[in-house]
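testing teh design pipeline on a random one, pls ignore if ur not involved
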């Protein structure tokens, strides 16, 4: 079976931005109205572990980019880069400044779960590691992520690939 696909730069298919810009440490506010997903809460296999996420109040002036179902969180620091597609957050939530927040643009022809799967595959992982910078801690710049060329097969093929990957993981 052949898979017809075209390629494009990730930045043409998805908005890529840094997480909410907290100044300093993220203070836990027990009665806070916002959840903050941080690197420690994100796993390539399990997604976001919402039960351990810090609750706080946003004090900055920047309007938040609320996390939505189908958004991707990308760990772009450390020795392991990966993306995870989130399901619906349990409440209003943002991601911390050390995560990248990707949102697939409507009409782009890309399923978010497929994009997360593709970003985690060896060919793109090799490109990400080649572009990483830093001496004590590696990191990837937003421009490097948006410039990544991704393959875009038909939506049915994307769904089939994600289904196979999920079955293999189980």
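output:
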């Amino acid at each position: 079976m052949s898979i017809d696909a075209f390629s494009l730069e990730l930045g043409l298919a998805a908005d890529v931005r840094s997480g909410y810009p907290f100044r300093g440490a993220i203070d836990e506010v027990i009665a806070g109205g916002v959840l903050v997903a941080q690197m420690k809460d994100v796993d390539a296999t399990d997604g976001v572990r919402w039960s351990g996420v810090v609750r706080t109040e946003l004090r900055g002036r920047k309007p938040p980019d609320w996390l939505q179902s189908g958004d991707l969180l990308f760990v772009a620091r450390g020795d392991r880069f990966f993306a995870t597609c989130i399901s619906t957050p349990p409440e209003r939530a943002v991601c911390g400044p050390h995560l990248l927040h990707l949102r697939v643009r409507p009409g782009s022809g890309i399923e978010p779960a497929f994009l997360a799967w593709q970003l985690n595959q060896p060919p793109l992982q090799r490109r990400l590691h080649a572009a990483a910078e830093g001496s004590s801690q590696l990191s990837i710049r937003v421009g490097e992520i948006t410039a990544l060329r991704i393959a875009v097969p038909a939506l049915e093929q994307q769904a089939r690939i994600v289904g196979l990957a999920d079955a293999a993981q189980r």
